Amino acid sequence: MVDVLLVFEVHQPYRLRRDYFWGNRAFKKLEKGELLDSYFDLATDSDIFRRAASKCYLPSNEIILNKIDEHKHEARDFRVAYSISGVFLEQCERYNKDVLESFKQLAETGRVEFLGQTYYHSLSSLYPSPSEFTDQVKTHRATIEDLLGYTPRVFENTELIYNNPIAKLVEALGYDGIFTEGAERIIGQESPNQLYKAKDCENLRVILRNYKLTDDVGFRFSNKSWSEYPLTAEKYADWLSQAQGQYVCIFLDYETFGEHMWPDTGIHEFLKKLPGEILRRNLTISTPSKVIASHKPKHTLDVPHHETVSWADIERSTHSWIGNDMQWAFYQKVRDAEDLVKELGDQEYTKIWRYLQISDHLYYMFTAGGGPGVVHSYFSPYEKPIDAFLSAQAALMDYIQRLRSETYAANEPFMFRTKEDEEGSTGITALSMKGFLHSLGAVPTRSLQFHRSRGDFEAWIKHSLRDETLAEEISKVNASNLRGEALRLQLMKTLCSYMSTLRKNREKTIKP
Question: Quick one: CA torsion of 144, 148, 152, 158, rounded to 10 degrees?
Answer without folding.
Answer: -50
